Amino acid sequence: MNDQKIKLTQLRVQTDGKPLETRALRSALIEAGADDVGFVSVDAPGLEGERDRILAVFPKARTFVSYVVRMSREPIRSPDRSLTNNEFHARGHDVDGIGRQLVRSLEDIGVGAVVPSMGFPMNMEKWPNSWLISHKPIAVAAGLGIMGIHRCVIHPKYGSFVLLGTVVIDAEVSQHTRPLDFNPCFECKLCVAACPTGAIKSDGAFDFSACYTHNYREFMTGFGNWVETIADAGSAKAYRKKVEDRETVSMWQSLGFGPNYKSAYCIGVCPAGEDIIGRYEQDKKGFIKEVVRPLQAREETVYAIKGADAERYAVKRFPHKPVKQVHNGLRPVSASGFLEYLPHLFQPGASEGLDARYHFRFTGDETINATVAIANKRITVESGLAGEPDMLVRADSKAWVDFVRGDISLVWCLLTRKIRPWGDPRLLLKFGRCFPS
User: Fold this and answer.
1) CA-based nearest residue to 270, from 161, 145, 181
2) Architecture field, domain 335-433
3) Mean pLDDT by 10-residue block, N- to C-terminus, for the chain (437 residues)?
4) Nearby residues of 61 by Cβ (< 8 Å), 6 or more positions away
5) Is 348:309 a contact under the CB 8 Å cutoff?
6) Comparing C-alpha atoms, which of 250, 194, 234, 224 is closest to residue 77?
7) Residue 432 backbone phi and psi in degrees, to 5
8) Are 323 and 314 in contact (CB under 8 A)?
9) In the chain, which residues fall in CATH 3.30.1050.10?
10) Which residues pair with 130 in a beta bridge?
């Protein structure tokens, strides 16, 4: 899409301080190619994180202009992932192009604006918190959808087949849109049935690690793991024993043309949305046969961490899909980051039978006290030392991070007293099994 300017003939320079007319902004974005538009203040409740990040780089920010671009359904549903990823990339470029058009046109009438990228580039020097804003919570606050159990925004009309964009402007608008008062997700659980890693649970829980390790294999940290595989191989012959030719050329394709998703089946099988649900309601069995079954039957490699719930799930649920053990590259860079990661990397299945409370006392570069409780296949992480611990871990923060990253051994840490655990050593081993790497 060309970065042409949007006609904003109904808007005027804000010399009198009046808000911009949302009707004119909406019409302009629709004309430029957006399929729906919403408006929400940067000060709206629930958007504190997005507000703080954008104000750090654009202090004049006043309003989030959220918009969606509809994707074609059949390419996303196709077992041929080249069709799917081509649609993702093409519509993603459209999202960014529409935003840039609005920014240029607003500038011509004296309104400042920025458009954070839909996907990439990101601020990788701030890894792992690389995104400038998260489009999903903004879209939900602006009334463009509700988050489904597959953790994608479901638009009331277009369902899950949308990509999200946001333009941030330094002006107030005449009217904000409101969040939806109903949930388009009716929990049909087809996304649960289609997911090759078991990341989406029928009770609404979500295994971030399983989804990230497989679906985003050729993104960020998956690429890092591939580089480490090359470094550790020692020779071309040894490398080929670890990585098939098709995996190598697939990584090249992602590097050359944009990172490709391995599945995203949860979007393809979702029947929610006014434009989509009719086909499902008229013939549920036919919908499952035509849309869900081909993705379930697809022969493909499932990428999973050794010992993770996803590995066991794929072997049992999809025996025709070979599982390859990999590392997802998610390694903390700080003790605070370690604590932040825990809920996202926690493996409920691996924690079966564990009921324990852990106190962590980090010193050195970071001084942090935290409590981690694991019981009934659930984890809670809270600041401070709460309750009576079953195990206490005192650790130099840097040494602990280096140990978790695999850069130094636990034996060395114990001998140098960089890490000092109190309690049953088996509890520390059981803790580690809940977060396989």
Assistant:
1) 161
2) 2-Layer Sandwich (3.30)
3) 55 63 93 97 96 96 98 97 97 97 93 94 87 96 97 98 98 96 94 97 93 95 93 96 96 94 96 96 97 97 96 97 93 93 94 97 97 97 97 97 93 95 94 92
4) 42, 51, 54, 55, 114, 168, 169, 170
5) yes
6) 194
7) -60, -35
8) yes
9) 335-433
10) none
